[in-house]
Design brief:
single chain; 4 strands; 53% helix; alpha+beta; globular; 111 residues; Glutaredoxin
């Protein structure tokens, strides 16, 4: 499978996914840590990909959505941004409803 197709499949099949350096439990970068903490603060489960253990994704994800840095957070198949945007959405009270809507949409499709 082509790497961009693999990324597209991950983004499509997970209502919320973060591409980060490290894992939510052991982040390897401060930006990834803060973004994962913002997602945790909303109280929903989310998928993650450790880009440090997948060189193909590390090299190709920046061209998938034309976003050059990590972390990258996708909600309902769309890139919402990186650390700063995620924290801003959390502070404005917009992140949790966004995640909730994406998760419910996915659950309704599966039902």
């Amino acid at each position: 499978m082509d790497i961009l197709e693999r990324i597209r499949e991950q983004v499509t099949n997970n209502p919320v996914i973060i591409y980060m350096k490290g894992t939510p439990q052991m982040p390897q970068c401060g930006f990834s840590n803060r973004a994962a903490q913002a997602l945790h603060a909303c109280g929903f489960e989310f998928a993650y990909v450790n880009v440090l253990t997948d060189p193909e994704i590390f090299q190709n994800l920046p061209r998938f959505a034309n976003w050059p840095t990590f972390p990258q957070i996708y909600v309902d198949g769309e890139l919402i941004g990186g650390c700063d945007i995620t924290l801003e959405l959390l502070q404005k009270g917009e992140l949790k409803p966004m995640l909730e809507a994406a998760i419910h949409k996915k659950q309704n499709k599966e039902a």
